[in-house]
Amino acid sequence: MQNKQKLLGLLGLARRAGKLVTGEDMVLAAIRKGKVNLVFFAQDGGQSTKKKFTDKTNSYDVAFTTALTRQEIADATGMARSLIAVADRGFARKMQEYLKQEEDIQ
């Protein structure tokens, strides 16, 4: 559980640093351009959107996780979103470490 708190704090820091991409169209474009390293999709998000992004991230070899809820993403970033992507390799690498310790990354 402590790793989840660290992850949420790091997500907020990435937001303040301007290293997050939000919105379906923007995230899709960033995945296609190879500009994102990790995609978060809310556990309580829509299944058709989840499938679309699962397929897209697998196709472009981008890490994808459903480790957080929409409320957790909103609390950490200050944005009510069910989909966000991390556009900084350093932030993404550290977040993946926390996720692997929680075994929540695909």
TrEMBL record:
Signal peptide annotation: none
Gene3D superfamilies reported for this sequence: 3.30.1330.30
Ranges where the Ribosomal protein eL8/eL30/eS12/Gadd45 domain occurs: 6-89
Pfam family, one: Ribosomal_L7Ae
Protein name: Ribosomal L7Ae/L30e/S12e/Gadd45 family protein
Species of provenance: Weissella diestrammenae
